């Protein structure tokens, strides 16, 4: 059987989760290289399920999201695949039918590019694996690298628990090209992430634009230095179960991200009024030093409340209840630390 005959009619499907950054990736160099290292927690419920089917023929992409043709994202995937064809020349000889769906509300401001591109990258790696079989370790490393080329944060979604991405001169384990899973203490193994969905509107400024504004940012150097410190400290805190340090870094990183947006040229703000009210409430609760939680934000107005599962009742009664009282219509998504992507199957038709 020739190689092409083997792949003609091949289809594969993966389910891949989103992740929430504990140490933020904000600022990049050409080639999707992060300007500073980042750490994230992989989620469980917020996922993208993607099926990729390929047929021998001229290169084309037919992408549908939840049953609808998505022209804008389809163009992004086309560019992504074209770029990857230098690494995987077989791409040029196939037409792609890609079907995708999210388990969370569409554009709920959750890092959907992370789940989307990690699922796509896993499908591509499965196809590549038909050509050149890879060891399990090499498979996930390759998937993480391919995911990064689609969306930086996606490379971290390949792994369960916590993952780190970006080189660190004090530790050779980490790379700019792919993420690496990191060990966590059992005290961090049952973390819950309650996502407070303040707005489902499309972001005013895209993450790509935000990254590019870090190039000439007045605080770039200080930020990248801070990120390197947060990176090392968070890895230690996660490995040793130092919850207080983990909580402090998580809050500082979320708020720093938004302060970098405010001090960009031109400045921009992704907070909504509700974001500010809730942050003030959370900081007031934290200052009383009695509530065991942390919180963070990605590039949007939504807030991730992170705490141990055993504190769920306490959090519901003392924190979430107060937020619901202030903003009765607000949507909450209950997520938690997850076990990483799942293989949904493959077949040859
Ligand atoms: C704030 O990974 O979405 O979520 O590489 O341009 O696709 P691109 O950016 P993206 O940026 C994520 C930024 C962030 C922080 C993080 O996840 O580390």
Give a short synopsis of this structure.
The protein is about 40% helix and about 25% strand.
Mind explaining what this structure looks like?
With 349 residues, the protein is of the alpha+beta class. The protein folds into 2 domains: 10-184 and 339-348, 2-Layer Sandwich (Ribosomal Protein S5, domain 2); 186-336, Alpha-Beta Plaits. Helices cover 38% and strands 26% of the residues. The chain has 9 helices and 14 strands. Strands 1, 4, 5, 6, 7, 8, 9 and 14 form an 8-stranded mixed sheet that branches. A 4-stranded antiparallel sheet has the order 11-12-10-13. The longest helix has 21 residues, at 220-240. The chain is globular. Ligand DP6 binds at residues 21, 24-26, 38, 111, 113, 151-153, 207-208, 211, 257, 298-299.
What would the keywords be for this entry?
349 residues; alpha+beta; Ribosomal Protein S5, domain 2; Alpha-Beta Plaits; 2 domains; eight-stranded mixed beta sheet; 9 helices; binds ligand DP6
The CATH architecture of the largest domain comes to: 2-Layer Sandwich
Poorly predicted tracts of residues = none
Q: So what's the CATH class of the largest domain?
A: Alpha Beta
Radius of gyration: 20 Å
Largest sheet entry: 8 strands, mixed
Distance between the termini: 15 Å
Structural class: alpha+beta
Mean pLDDT: 94
Task: Give the percentage of residues in beta strands.
Answer: 25-35%
Q: Which percent range fits the helix content?
A: 25-40%
Q: Which fold name is given in CATH as the topology of the largest domain?
A: Ribosomal Protein S5, domain 2
Q: In terms of quaternary structure, what is this?
A: single chain
* Anisotropy-based shape: globular
Bound molecules: ligand DP6
Work out the number of β strands: 14
DSSP helical segment count: 9
Q: Please, how many domains?
A: 2
H-E order: HEEEEEEHEHHEEEHHHHEEHEE
């Amino acid at each position: 059987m020739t190689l092409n005959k083997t792949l003609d009619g091949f289809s594969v499907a993966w389910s891949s989760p989103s992740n929430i950054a504990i140490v933020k990736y904000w600022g990049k160099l050409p080639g999707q290289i992060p300007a500073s290292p980042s750490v994230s927690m992989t989620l469980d419920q917020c996922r993208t399920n993607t099926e990729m089917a390929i047929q021998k023929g001229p290169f084309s992409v037919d992408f549908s999201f939840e049953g609808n043709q998505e022209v804008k994202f389809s163009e992004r995937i086309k560019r992504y695949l074209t770029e990857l064809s230098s690494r995987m020349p077989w791409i040029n000889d196939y037409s792609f039918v890609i079907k995708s769906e999210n388990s969370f509300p569409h554009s709920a401001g959750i890092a959907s590019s992370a789940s989307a591109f990690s699922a796509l990258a896993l499908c591509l790696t499965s196809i590549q694996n038909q050509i050149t079989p890879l060891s399990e370790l090499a498979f996930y490393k390759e998937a993480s690298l391919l995911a990064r080329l689609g969306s930086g944060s996606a490379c971290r979604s390949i792994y369960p628990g916590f993952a780190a991405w970006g080189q660190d001169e004090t530790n050779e384990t980490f790379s700019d090209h792919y993420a690496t899973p990191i060990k966590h203490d059992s005290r961090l193994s049952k973390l819950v992430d309650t996502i407070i969905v303040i707005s489902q509107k499309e972001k005013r400024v895209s993450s790509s634009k935000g990254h590019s504004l870090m190039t000439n940012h007045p605080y770039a150097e200080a930020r990248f230095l801070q990120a390197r410190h947060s990176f090392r400290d968070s890895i230690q805190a996660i490995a040793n179960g130092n919850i207080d340090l983990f909580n402090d870094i998580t809050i500082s990183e979320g708020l720093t991200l938004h302060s970098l947006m405010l001090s960009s040229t031109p400045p921009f703000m992704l907070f909504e009024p509700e974001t500010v009210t809730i942050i003030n409430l959370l900081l007031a609760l934290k200052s009383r030093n009695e509530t065991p939680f942390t919180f963070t934000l990605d590039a949007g107005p939504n807030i991730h409340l992170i705490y141990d599962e055993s504190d769920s009742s306490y959090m519901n009664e003392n924190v979430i209840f107060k937020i619901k009282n202030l903003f009765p219509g607000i949507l909450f998504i209950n997520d938690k630390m997850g076990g990483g992507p799942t293989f949904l199957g493959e077949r040859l038709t």
